[in-house]
Amino acid sequence: LICSAQVHVDVPDRDTAVRAMCLVGRWLAPLLALSASSPYWLGADTGYASWRTMLWQRWPTAGPAGCHSGAASYDALLADLIRSGVISDPGMIYYDVRPSAHQPTLELRICDACPRVTTVVLVAGLFRALVDDACARLARREHPGCDGRHEWLRAAAWQAARSGLEGPLTDPVTLGPAPARTVLHTLLARLRPVLEAYGDWEAVRELLELALADGSAARRLRGVYERRGPAAAVAA
Fold first, then answer.
1. What is the CATH number of domain 4-235?
2. Over the chain, what is the mean pLDDT?
3. 172: Cβ contacts below 8 Å, ≥ 6 apart
4. What is the DSSP string of 144-164?
5. CA–CA gap between residue 227 and residue 197 (Å, rounded)
6. Does the pTM of the predicted model rise above 0.85?
7. Among 35, 55, 61, 199, which Cα is nearest to 121's?
8. Under a CB-based contact definition with an 8 Å cutoff, are residues 46 and 141 in contact?
9. Domain regions of the chain by residue span
C-alpha cells in the first residue's frame, strides 16, 4: 500500500491546465523532497526518503508529464494510450502533475502522504502559487519555449526521492546540484508576488523554515525507529 498527497488548483480552462504543466513541472521535485515520508518498505529501510516514488514510477503513465501545445495535443496522447490497451481510461494517467479527469483543475500527484498537516498546507500553498504564476506567465506570453528535453525531470525526482531534504536537489534553473534549502528558497522568492497577493507569504515562509529546520518526515521516522522500534515509527 502506498499513499500520496494530492492537491487540486482551479485553472481557467483545460487548455491552460495542459500548457501550465510544462511551467510547473520543473519545480515539482522540490515539493516531493518536502513531502518525502516513505523510507521503509516491507519492514526494511530502503535507503530512500520516498520509496513510494520508486514504486510508483514503474507504471508506464507515471513520472513527468512532458509538454503539449494545448488540450488537443494532450487529449490525443490519452486517446492513443487508451487505444493501445496500456490504459483503459483517462483516470489511469498517473503523471506527477495532470489536468484532472473530473474537475476543472491542475492536479499535483508527485508528493508522498504527509504525517504533519503543516507540511500539507505548505505544499498546497506553494503549488497553488506555482499554478497561478504559470497561468499569469502564459497570459502575458512570458513563458520560455520548451526544448522538449524532460529526462532531467525524472532524474530530479529520483534525487528528491533518494535524499528528501537531507541531500542535494537538482536546481531547476541551473540543472546542477544545490542544497535543498537553496532550491526551496529560490522557489519561494520566485513565488513571493503571488503569495503576497493571496496573503499567504508569511504563513508559507514560516512553514518552509519550520520544514527545513525539522528535516523530512523520512528522517524523523528513521529517528523514531532507531529509538523505539518499528511499531513506534509506523504510529509516528
1. 3.30.590.20
2. 92
3. 26, 27, 29, 30, 156, 183, 186, 187
4. PPP-S--HHHHHHHHHHHHHT
5. 44
6. yes
7. 35
8. no
9. 4-235
